């Protein structure tokens, strides 16, 4: 296998902390969506979220990091630690300029920023933490991971909403191709605080349903918006040669990538999602017939679902490829969604199981072969992951199982 491969997974999701716990939940159709508990949502139209329960950063991170980090950064630091351990990478043993960090972010450290704004207006500027200067920032996760592990190679952050996580993986892949041995990539988001909640609600895309089983129903006639969630996945990406020299376990190759941007609303031009999928397939030198499963963006609004279903159908044909949306168990995780779907697709290929889209009942005229209800056994060697960001961002990634496993 050549190119950029993924050798480690670190997952923090509403339905599971860590790779094993998350996969057990996702493959069983166990949802992490429920009533908001991190603040009182009674004054807001939406009251459901995909919250991560049982996360205790004080047990997982040095005490000195806690005052200077937002919840999202703590999740990212822990996920990075788990991903490195999963890849059996000890950063101290590798050249510091041959390792980099490239992540994505949609909102940055909203909860930390809200607390400091409350301090400013209630007590005065002397009570605002100096850490506010960076704890809110989009690039803080990349920076903190880099500092913690002594990684001085290529670094950066991508901001393109829910498409950003896949865009970050693509940027990591570019740096691998340019000669960097190892990149920590992926994304986290965590905006479940009153300030973040108000911002999310203004999109007009958040579901106001009060029943967790009825709130997030992509590709369903009852679709009424999405449920926000927190978390995501951090992955270890290496050059295939570097992974081979280490004797690393390879989950799969990032074989192809495509990105587009939609035309201005009202322009009369077609949405650009189909083109992003076609670009990713062409980059991977893969035909539609070779794709075994599609992990959908699954916006959860009738108009956006129709656009995605039309794009998938145009490329693959009606009901020609299994399609799934495990994010119905977590909520939409914004920049964290694409990397989590990527990790899920890699685990699905390893286990030979497509996790389900829960609670959804597609209409009889729906053109997709949606995996609903329970997981579906399947032989998987190639997967497509699709993500779209608010405002017109589109991204698609093709993942391929290690060839030696396919041959076996």
Give a structural overview.
With 408 residues, this protein is an alpha/beta fold. It folds into two domains: 4-246, Peroxisomal Thiolase, Chain A, domain 1 (3-Layer(aba) Sandwich), CATH 3.40.47.10; 256-402, 3-Layer(aba) Sandwich (Peroxisomal Thiolase, Chain A, domain 1), CATH 3.40.47. The chain is 33% helix and 20% strand. The protein is built from 13 helices and 16 strands. It has helices at residues 19-28, 57-60, 71-87, 110-123, 132-135, 140-149, 164-177, 194-201, 240-246, 273-283, 302-316, 337-351, 403-407, and strands spanning 4-13, 16-17, 33-35, 48-50, 99-104, 155-158, 182-189, 231-239, 252-261, 293-295, 322-324, 353-354, 369-370, 376-377, 382-389, 393-400. Strands 1, 2, 5, 6, 7, 8, 9, 10, 11, 13, 15 and 16 form a twelve-stranded mixed β-sheet that branches. A two-stranded antiparallel sheet has the order 3-4. Helix 11 links the parallel strand 10 and strand 11 (322-324). It is globular, with a radius of gyration of 20 Å.
């Amino acid at each position: 296998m050549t190119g950029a491969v993924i050798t480690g997974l670190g997952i923090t999701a509403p339905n599971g902390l860590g790779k094993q716990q998350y996969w057990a939940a996702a493959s069983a159709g166990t949802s992490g969506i429920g009533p908001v508990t991190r603040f009182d949502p009674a004054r807001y139209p939406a009251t459901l979220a995909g919250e991560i329960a049982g996360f205790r950063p004080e047990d997982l991170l040095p005490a000195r990091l806690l005052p200077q980090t937002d919840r999202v950064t703590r999740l990212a630091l822990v996920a990075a630690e788990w991903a490195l351990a999963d890849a059996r990478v000890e950063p101290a043993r590798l050249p510091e300029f041959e390792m980099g960090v490239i992540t994505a972010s949609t909102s940055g450290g909203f909860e930390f920023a809200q607390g400091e704004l409350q301090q400013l207006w209630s007590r005065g500027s002397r009570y605002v933490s100096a850490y506010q200067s960076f704890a809110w920032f989009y690039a803080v996760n990349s920076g903190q991971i880099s500092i913690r592990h002594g990684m001085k190679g290529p670094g950066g952050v991508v901001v393109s909403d829910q498409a950003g996580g896949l865009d970050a993986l693509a940027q990591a892949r570019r740096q691998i191709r340019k000669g960097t041995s190892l990149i920590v990539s992926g994304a986290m988001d965590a905006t479940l605080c009153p300030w973040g909640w108000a911002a999310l609600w203004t999109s007009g895309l958040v579901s106001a349903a009060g029943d967790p089983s009825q709130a997030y129903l992509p590709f369903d006639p009852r679709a009424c918006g999405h449920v926000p969630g927190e978390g995501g996945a951090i992955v270890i990406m290496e050059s295939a040669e570097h992974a081979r020299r280490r004797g690393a376990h390879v989950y799969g190759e990032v074989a192809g990538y495509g990105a587009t941007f939609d035309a201005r609303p009202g322009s009369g031009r077609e949405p650009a999602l189909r083109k992003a999928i076609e670009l990713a397939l062409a980059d991977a030198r893969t035909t539609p017939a070779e794709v075994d499963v599609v992990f959908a963006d699954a916006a959860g609004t009738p108009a956006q679902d129709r656009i995605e279903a039309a794009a998938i159908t145009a490329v693959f044909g009606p009901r020609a490829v299994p399609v799934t949306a495990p994010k119905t168990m977590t909520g939409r995780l914004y920049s964290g969604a694409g990397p989590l779907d990527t990790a899920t697709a890699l685990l699905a290929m390893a286990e030979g199981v497509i996790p389900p889209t829960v609670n959804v009942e597609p209409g009889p005229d729906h053109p997709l072969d949606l995996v609903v209800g329970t997981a579906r056994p399947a032989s998987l060697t190639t997967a497509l992951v699709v993500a779209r960001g608010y405002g017109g961002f589109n991204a698609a990634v093709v993942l391929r199982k290690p060839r030696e496993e396919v041959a076996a």
